[in-house]
Each structure stands twice: as C-alpha cells, then as structure tokens.
Amino acid sequence: MPSDFNQQIIDEFRANEGRVGGMFEGAPLVLLTTTGAKSGKPVTTPVMYLADGDRYIVIASNAGADNHPAWYHNLRANPGATAEIGTETFEVKAEFVEGEERDQLYARMVAQAPGFAEYEAKTTRRIPVVALYRTAA
C-alpha cells in the first residue's frame, strides 16, 4: 500500500496525464508497479527516471536512507513490472546496472536532478541503478 504522500502523487499523475506539481513539478516521473516480494500483491511507486535510448533508468536512492526502497527488493524478486509514463502504460523488465556504466548513469541523473548527489552523500550504501526495458505486450 503506497504511503499517503505517494498516493497523492499517483492520483495527481493519473488525473493530469502524467504531470504533477509541488516538489516533482517538471520532473520525469514513472509510476512503477512491481509485485511485492513478500506479499505477491501489486505495489505502485512514483519514481524519477532518466531516459536513455530505448530504456528508462531509475535510481534506488530511497532519498539517501541506509536501506534500499521496497520497489528495488520487489524487482530483485520479480524483474517484470508495469510502467506508466504520461498517458502510456507498458510492461518492462528490470536489469541491474553495475560498474562504470552504473557510475556514468548515476552522474547523468545527478546532472538532471542534483538532489541525487545529496542522497549519495547521506548513505554508505552503494545506491543501485536499474534499467527498465520495454517488453513485448
């Protein structure tokens, strides 16, 4: 079940063709629906993304907390998910990016949204980078 904060963003996103105001105004957001690793139930989370060719890059920053976000654990357990961007909904498969490519993509996200540098500074964990690929319907 999404937090009240996330639920407000989800509702606003869906009511306004993928646009939201407040702290995420103008930010590229995807509504990522994963399957709960423990519950097996669908869980929707708004996540900022970075477009990268035919894939969407998401960062498991959890706002710099010392633990990975639930959606990341869900994708580890089941890499298939649903993405909503704007008015489009499509299936995706997650791949976990490592090494130099991970560092380059994280730096690109920081350039797009400088808050990600603060998240990295707040935690000792290596923040995961995940690539979402569209799958055939």
Automatic annotation (TrEMBL):
Pfam families: F420H2_quin_red
UniProt xrefs under InterPro entries: F420H2_quin_Rdtase, Split_barrel_FMN-bd
Catalytic activity: oxidized coenzyme F420-(gamma-L-Glu)(n) + a quinol + H(+) = reduced coenzyme F420-(gamma-L-Glu)(n) + a quinone
Gene3D superfamilies to which the protein is assigned, alphabetical: Electron Transport, Fmn-binding Protein, Chain A
Lineage top rank: taxon: Bacteria
Membrane-traversing stretches: none
Family per record: Belongs to the F420H(2)-dependent quinone reductase family.
Protein name: Nitroreductase family deazaflavin-dependent oxidoreductase
Organism name: Nonomuraea composti
Taxonomy of the source species: Bacteria, Bacillati, Actinomycetota, Actinomycetes, Streptosporangiales
